[in-house]
Amino acid sequence: MEKEHGAIFEQGKQSIKIPIPIYIRASASVAGTKEGEGPFGDLFDVVGIDDKFGCDTWEEAESTLQKEALQMAIGKAGLKNEDIRFLFAGDLLGQSIASSFGLGGFHIPLMGMYGACSTCGLSLSAATIVIAGGMARYTACVTSSHFASAEKEFRFPLAYGNQRPLSSTWTVTGSGAFVVSSEKSDCDRAMITGLTIGKIMDFGLKDSMNMGACMAPAAADTIYTHMMDFGTTPEDYDKIITGDLGYVGQKALFDMMREKNLDISKVHMDCGIEIYDSSQDAHAGGSGCGCSAVTLSAYILKQLEEGIWKRVLFVPTGALLSKTSFNEGQSIPGIAHGVELISCKQ
């Protein structure tokens, strides 16, 4: 049942139907060296030749990723910093320091986001809601991750040289930025037509080296709820795209969806699986805030922009753990946010 509140419509249990055109006007992707050697290497706007990006620390390098991606996206949109009403940004580091130190110089009102690796979907959702509600004409979103800073934040410093099990994923070094607008332009990459805000799902799993399995229940819940809320089936989408479940999480997702009498295997794509090839030793695949963000900017939006895909459901996934919660024996909850995108070439 739809209930009108201003310019936004409630849709079903936890979704939002966007009743006015909302456009991703422009985007940019900045990636690390390993990512540049993968299948999308030629599609990224910038690929670093040094994963420190000329900085002294990994954390400063991640801030630089965000700074470069956002400036490039604003420039592609034909806008200036002062045209952006609100900025939605986040990362994986404590107190979101990659965002705060990287974006302060833009002097744009900032709403900090934290959805772990689902932050790209969370920030796009918030930016869309603000514009659909008539509170801004232009908003921007940016998120990032860095392999070395994430290893230090969540696991072990690189110098420790710990072994990684095959179920583990490789944190993507990269940043994706997006400019969202209520005004149509000649450079629009896609339209946002619906959102499904995810719930925290906790199946009691505690293995931080198998985050794909920890996040799969949240992905399954959000995808299923989105389809129930909008009355769609897997066949209605060219692709249903998760953020970073990897090979292990993908299998779990398929099993959970089949339990709900839905088979998404023919249309499913996972950014973490696609961003590296089998020769790059990423084990279960890629992960991190930057994984879905750079894949969306470099590859997914390209497919929509060219009309190859007409409609996709983009569902970045996040594992909501910290070193503290893990060391205290807590389980690893997951969350996933769904963003429905359609091609402007309909």
Summarize this entry quickly.
This protein has 346 residues and is α/β, with parallel strands linked by helices.
Give keywords.
346 residues; alpha/beta; Peroxisomal Thiolase, Chain A, domain 1; 2 domains; 14-stranded mixed beta sheet; 32% helix
CATH topology of the largest domain: Peroxisomal Thiolase, Chain A, domain 1
Secondary-structure-based class equals alpha/beta
According to CATH, what is the class of the largest domain? Alpha Beta
Question: What's the number of domains?
Answer: 2
* Rg, nearest Å: 18 Å
Overall residue-averaged pLDDT value: 92
Provide the CATH architecture of the largest domain.
3-Layer(aba) Sandwich
Number of helices: 10
The gross shape turns out to be globular
- The sequence of SSEs as H and E is EEEEHEHEHEHEHEEEHEHEHEHEEHEE
Distance between the termini: 27 Å
Q: Can you describe what's shown?
A:
With 346 residues, the chain is an alpha/beta fold. It folds into two domains: 23-181, 3-Layer(aba) Sandwich (Peroxisomal Thiolase, Chain A, domain 1), CATH 3.40.47.40; 190-342, Stage V sporulation protein AD (Peroxisomal Thiolase, Chain A, domain 1), CATH 3.40.47.40. Helices cover 32% and strands 23% of the residues. Strands 1, 2, 3, 4, 5, 6, 7, 8, 10, 11, 12, 13, 15 and 18 form a 14-stranded mixed sheet that branches. The chain is globular.
SSE map:
Blueprint: E1 3-5, E2 8-11, E3 15-17, E4 23-31, H1 33-36, E5 46-47, H2 58-76, E6 86-90, H3 97-103, E7 110-112, H4 119-132, E8 138-145, H5 147-154, E9 170-171, E10 174-181, E11 190-196, H6 211-230, E12 239-242, H7 246-259, E13 268-270, H8 271-274, E14 286-287, H9 289-305, E15 311-315, E16 317-319, H10 323-327, E17 334-336, E18 338-342
Parallel strand pairs: 4-5, 6-7, 6-8, 9-14, 12-13, 12-15
Antiparallel strand pairs: 1-2, 2-3, 3-11, 4-10, 4-11, 8-10, 11-18, 15-18, 16-17
Helix pairs in contact: 2-3, 6-7
